[in-house]
Amino acid sequence: MYNVVFCVYLQCFLTLYKSTVRPHLEYITPVWSPQFKKDQKIIENVLRRATRMVKGLCDKPYHERLKLLGIPSLEYRRQKADIIQTYKIYQQIDKMNINALFLGPPNTSRTRGNSLKIHKQHCRTNLMLHSFSQRVVGKWNNLPQSVDNAPSINSFKKPVK
C-alpha cells in the first residue's frame, strides 16, 4: 500500500515540477545561460529544494535523488538545449544567418567527430566570451558523425548525451 501511495505522490510531483517549475527555470536558456557558478548554483538550488520535498528522498544526496526521480540536472538540460538550438540553426529550422553567428561556413576538413565543425571567434570582451555562439563550439565539435545524418530534431535528440 505504501509503494502505491508513494508512486502516486511521485507522479504528482513530477507532473507539477515539469509543468510549472522547470519552464520558469529554463525560459530562454539558449539566449541567457548563467556564466557564473554562483548563478548556476542559485538556479540548481530550486531543483535541489524541490527534490528534497519528496517523501522518502529527503535524506539522500542530490544526484541520487535526481537519478531516482529520473530528472536530469538543470546544467545538463542547459547544455542539451544549446546543442539542439545549434542543430536547428544548421538545419535552417530557425532562420538565422549561420555565417554571422559562427564565423564562416562549417569546417569540413576534419576527419574526427562530425563534419559540421564550427570555428571559435576571437573575443575581446567577457560579454562575448560567454555568448551562445562561443559556449556551444566545444560541445558541438565533440559530437559524433551521427549529427550530419539526423533527419529530424527528434532523431537528433536521442543520441545527444
Q: What is the overall number of helices?
A: 10
Strands, count: 0
What is the domain total for the residues?
Answer: 2
Strand content: under 5%
Contiguous uncertain segments of 5+ residues: none
- Approximate shape: globular
Overall helicity: 55-70%
Instruction: State the separation between the terminal residues, measured CA to CA.
Output: 36 Å
Give the mean pLDDT: 81
Structure commentary:
The chain has 161 residues and is mainly alpha-helical. The protein folds into 2 domains: 2-71, no CATH class; 78-157, no CATH class. The protein has helices at residues 2-26, 37-52, 62-69, 74-90, 98-102, 126-129, 132-135, 137-141, 146-149, 153-157. The mean pLDDT is 81.
What attributes characterize this protein structure?
161 residues, mainly alpha, 10 helices
Summarize the structure.
The protein has about 160 residues and is mainly alpha-helical. It has 10 helices and no strands.
